[in-house]
């Protein structure tokens, strides 16, 4: 019996490895050129990264200019952490809201020069972005962290496909059979926990994984407190299939996230307020092959940059020295 079980497990392992190889070939054929600019990460927590020096990435593997770790005197640095929305996917670098924010802030002070550094990668979830915060952000001597939170951020990097299947493509388990079993158990647990949750994907994701969301917010706060750097959590709305934001169904989730951010010691900034005066089709990326609910177009990024700048200036979140920097939530 033991021999039969061993043979069966071995055959299943071989079959699953073959199936995964087929899946990898399918994903490679289906992804566009930008996504294939990624490579497997040496850090297993990240799974994949952007290839340094290729496809517009700098030497650290971020779609941004090169910045030295040591900042010059009189420089105030804002570090933006996020995913493809903060990266400005489908736009040029200078059209992304972090670079537009940097440009807008140039006239805010005669004594300070502002640098907005982008540490964002397409498809990353909060669990991966936390690695960027801990391992990268403070090497740049950050004065403020601007956390770009998109409503699919609680997704699992492998078991969900919010990264366009890049997690599946680059993840290499030691045992494909064990991974197959773990994936099935993950799905069963999710269905059980989500049996009474709203079925809209983003609301469902937060309902099922709310404990993870609050733990991540607390971890962001803990890490940044250690470095005496405040964090603004910018919550992005999504583009639902409706004309405008008057019927937007995720307002309660935005409120819940902002309240959780405040409780964790972060500064919430709800970007829904920036988008409400506009129609959804005015602000979202138009894709010929699928409806994109996440990525704003160039106008959307301009509106976000203006809104964020206004909040930073009005609430005194920028330009303060270490003794007077804000520590908790503000009224915005």
What would your notes on this structure say?
With 332 residues, the chain is an alpha/beta fold. It has a single domain, classed as Rossmann fold, CATH 3.40.50.1110. Helices cover 42% and strands 11% of the residues. The chain is built from 12 helices and 7 strands. It has helices at residues 2-30, 84-87, 97-105, 126-135, 166-170, 176-193, 201-208, 210-226, 251-264, 272-275, 280-283, 298-314, and strands at residues 38-40, 48-50, 75-82, 113-120, 144-149, 231-235, 267-270. It has a 5-stranded parallel β-sheet with strand order 4-3-5-6-7, sandwiched between helices. A two-stranded antiparallel sheet has the order 1-2. α3 (97-105) packs across α12 (298-314) and α4 runs parallel beside α8 (210-226). The radius of gyration is 21 Å and the shape is globular. Residues 321-332 have low confidence and may be disordered.
Largest sheet: 5 strands, parallel
N-to-C order of helices and strands = HEEEHHEHEHHHHEHEHHH
Radius of gyration: 21 Å
Instruction: Briefly note the structural class of the backbone.
Output: alpha/beta
CATH architecture: 3-Layer(aba) Sandwich
Number of strands: 7
Output the CATH homologous superfamily. SGNH hydrolase
**Which ranges are low-confidence, i.e. pLDDT below 50, for 5 or more consecutive residues?**
321-332
**How many domains is the backbone divided into?**
1
End-to-end separation in angstroms reads 66 Å
> What's the rounded overall pLDDT mean?
91
Count of separate DSSP helical elements: 12
Output the CATH topology. Answer: Rossmann fold
